[in-house]
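re the bet — no i am not wrong, look at it urself. input seq straight from the record:
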Amino acid sequence: MEIKNRSAYFEYFIDDKFTAGIMLTGTEVKSLREGKANFNDSYCIFQKGELWIRSFHISEYSHGTVNNHDPIRERKLLLNRRELKKLEARIKEKGYTIVPLRLYFNEKNLAKMDIGLGKGKKLHDKRETIKQRDTDREIKRYIK
């Protein structure tokens, strides 16, 4: 099971990628296994030297009780200290942001999130991306 942030590659140039663990509650994990998550407008920030993801929506678990989770609460991302310091230093440069790219379960059934260090695209860059995508689609159509 994998959930991708499709708009991230359209909105940003991704320079570096990191794999981070994510702290979740039980009902969040069950809801993620059903594929009920949404990356719309989600972003990562630093608070007191820790990396958090905001506005990442995980729907409430359908069979959850009163102990169900808040769908858009902040969730802590788990990276080692060296990676956190590297990211924090790059964020201070102009135009860089940390973008969540995809969420998946690894072979040990742990929830992992790929995050990318991205720089925002301008309008003409986005148009270029659309042109490239269309030409790739045309080439694949002729090959078949």
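see?? The first helix runs from residue 6 to 11. told u. also The radius of gyration is 17 Å. so pay up
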